[in-house]
Every structure is written in structure tokens, then in C-alpha cells.
Amino acid sequence: MFEINPSNGIPVYEQITRQIKFAIASGVFETGQMIPSVRELARQLAINPNTVARAYRDLQGDQVVEPVRGSGLAVSSGARALCRTERGKLVRQRIIDVLDEAFQSQLSADDIRQIVEQELARREAKVK
Amino acid sequence: MTPLVKLDGLSKQYGRTTAVDQLSLEVPPGVVFALLGENGAGKSTTLRMLMGLEQPTRGKATVLGLDCATQGAEIRRRCGYLPELPVLYDWMKVSEIGWFTAGFYDDQFLPRFHQLAAAFELPLDKKISALSKGGRAKVALSLAMAHEPQLLILDEPTSGLDTLVRRQFLESMVDVAATGRTVLLSSHQIGEVERVADYIAVLHAGKLLACDTLENLKSQHERWVITFASHEASLPELTARIISHEGQGGRRQQMLVQRPGPEELWRLRDHPGVLEVEVHTPSLEELFVALIKPAGQIADRPAHDRTGSR
Q: Residue B179 in contact with residue B29, Cβ under 8 Å?
């Protein structure tokens, strides 16, 4: 379900927290649902269990998941809204990065607007 | 925490060749520790000395508190060890070699061996001689793991195996670590090490070049891609340790620096002629390549590097 790339510059634990947050935001994991155990996810992704544990600690710290007595971690109530906000922030940051790159390569604001409009239009055409 | 494995100036000399050169490091319990290096870096020799199969020329090592030079038999009994080229009795069936090896361990060995064999889909009634390379490796790993050792030592466990078996091996390693036990492996597969290891020791020509958690190794280094306005532009004085520097004299240069201060990056960015500096987290592969480059190629450091006091 998750895809990890250990050498893409983003720490692996962060790749895990992001993907779990995205999964919660899109409803793949529902409120109250258990997320996979450390052992399970480590095995599934063939990555170090301490890395998964670290990601889970971060998720707990962000109050996205909470311990359920004796059985593991479950998605907290209110996590979905939290994760949606976070997803919005992350996407915004990525757009900012792309804009930086575009301005550095001497594109004008109008050039960029035109590209964005074209791409959005193409997508909408596909959906219809 | 007492280290499970401790090396103190461990060295091995074969005639005039130094295979392992004053290696000192500690493996804490409950981690996946990888010795990373090219072929001939001294990884196998180190592991063989730890198992008491090879006597050190100088220095000392302990495994589980036992002296490797004198208590090898006890170390081999307590640890799981997968040699680079496992020797198995070819004429035995898979079930027979499990039963035979179980004689050296407690009652739980055989049922666990059968569990592992089933998980690896090994045919119990086939002879070892009739197994593929991957099949033999699975038998050897099952034998090394079936007594649930505190410490599992694996010498190039995935080399020469196909993707599927490799993946199964990685999953097994991860699972051993998830139960709080320790894995010490050697490998030259950087991608795999980056996935599974907590700690990494980079070995080159018998010497230890770096040893730290993967996270520290990555966070202490930055890869800078610098774009200059012209070919004539020069770099300002830098005090951070420059591990590698590529494209010197060009308009686009790349540097791998260790523990740069934030003021240093600003100084570089404000330097006349510097258009842009991109900062990246290096991948383990980039770090590894930079670390093992022959000394002559490492960092044509600017003369004023003397000021670096680290």
C-alpha cells in the first residue's frame, strides 16, 4: 500500500508519516481503525523497524493516532480534519517550490499562469 | 547499554597485506548494524574473526562478552552465523540437515526450523545438492535463525540471490530486529543497507571511514550544488570539512560537506560570482562514493582549509 524510497532525500520515517496522513486524509484509514503494527509494516516494506517506530511516535505526537490498550495504534477522532489540513499545507509547499524554480528559470508570472491553466484544462477534459 | 559486539584495534595481516586495519567499533543491542564496503574491504575477514574462525594479528574483539580469540566455539554456539559461502552437507535432505543441526541446540530448534522452511517454501524431502543457489541460501539462513540467537551475523546475505529471495531475506532480517534481537550484516548493496540498517560502518581497504547511525550520517552531511556566474568565479573560504568536490573550475560545481554551519552557507551565497546554492540531503550512495574515493581525489581543498579546526 505504501511506497518507500530510501534514497530520495526525504527521511524514511517522514515518508511513512506523510503517507499514513495522506491515507487518513483520503479515508483509506477511518477514525478508530487500527494502523498496521510496527512489525507488520516493517516487514511489508522491508525497512528497519526502529524507523517505523519513530514514524509512529511522530504520528502519536501529532495526535493523529492513539494507543488502544493492548492492541496497538488507532486513528484518533479528529485526525482526518488534521490530516487534510496538513495535506493542503504540503501540496502548497510543493507548489511554492515549483514556483521558485520557475521564477529562477526566468519564466514570468503570466507564463506560469498559462501553464497551470492549460494543465488544469487538460485534466478537466479527461475527467469529462 | 553494554555493546553486544566490541572491536578494539582489531587488525588482520596476511603476509604483507593488511586486510583489516585497527578496527574499533561497538554494536549496541537491538539494532541492524551494517558493515558497508566494496569487495575486499575487509568485511568478511572481520566477521570471521568475530566468529573465532580467524585469529586477529593485533587488537581484540568480544561478542556477547566472549573473547573472539579464545572462545570462538561458544560464540558460534550462541550466535546465528551465515557465512558468505555456506557449507552444507550436500547428500542430506533439507529435513535431515535440520534434524542434524537440531542436535546442537534445544528442543525448540526443530519446530522453528520447520516453520522457517515452510515460510521460505523449502521442500523438506529434497536433497541439498538438488537445490538452487537461492534454495541453499534459504536452508543456511533457516539454520542460522532457528535457535533464535540474540545476535545474527550475516556475511553478504543477499549477494547473488534473485529479487524475490532477496526480498524474503530482507523481511526476515527486519523481523528479527522487530523482536528486539540484533543483526550484524556485511553488504555492498547500498540500497538494501539504506532500507534496513540503523547503524552503518563504512569500511575501505581494511579501514573504518565512518561509523554512525544512518540518520546522523545523513544529517551531518550536505550536498551543495553551486552555480557560478562565470568560469573565473572562485569560492570563498570555507571552514567545514569538504569530503568531495566535483566540477572544479566549471560553472556548476558540487560539494559534499560535513557539518557546515549556517553562517557558512550564507557566506557562500553572498560571495561575488555565486549565483545559486542548492542544498540537498545526500543519499547513502553519494556519501559512500565520496568517502571511499582514493585520498588523492578527495577534496582538492583550498589552501586556507588549514583554518578548519575540527
A: no
Question: Chain B residue with minimal CA distance to A104?
Answer: B276
Q: For residues B142 and B86, what is the distance between their CA atoms, to the nearest angstrom?
A: 12
Which of the residues in chain A have pLDDT under 50? none
- Residue B244, amino acid: S
How are beta strands A72-75 and B252-258 bridged, if at all? unpaired
Cβ proximity of B151 and B80 under 8 Å: yes
Strand pairing category for B58-63 and B66-67? antiparallel
- Between the two ends of chain A, the Cα-to-Cα distance in Å is 28
The residue among B195, B225, B286 with the most chain A CBs within 10 A of its CB, best to mutate, is B195
Give the closest-approach CA distance of A66 to chain B in angstroms. 21
Find, among A87, A74, A67, A77, the residue nearest to A26 by Cα: A87
Percent of chain B with pLDDT over 70: 94
Q: Give chain B's end-to-end CA distance (angstroms, integer).
A: 29
- Alpha-carbon separation of residue B195 from A80, A89, B149, B184, B215 (angstroms): 29, 28, 22, 14, 12
**Is the pLDDT at B299 greater than 90, yes or no?**
no
Measured distance CA(B95)–CA(A7) in Å, rounded = 41
Q: Give yes or no for A72 touching B (CB within 8 A).
A: no
For the stretch B159-199, pLDDT in tens is: 888 888 999 999 999 999 999 999 999 999 998 999 999 99
Q: How far apart, in Å, are the Cα atoms of B123 and each of B112, B116, B136?
A: 15, 12, 11
DSSP β-bridge partners for residue B257: B222, B242
Partner residues linked to B66 by β-bridges: B63
Element (H, E) at B113: helix B109-119
Helical packing angle, A79-104 and A12-25, nearest 10°: 120
Query: Cβ-count burial of B103 within 10 angstroms (0-12 exposed, 13-18 middle, 19+ buried)?
Result: exposed
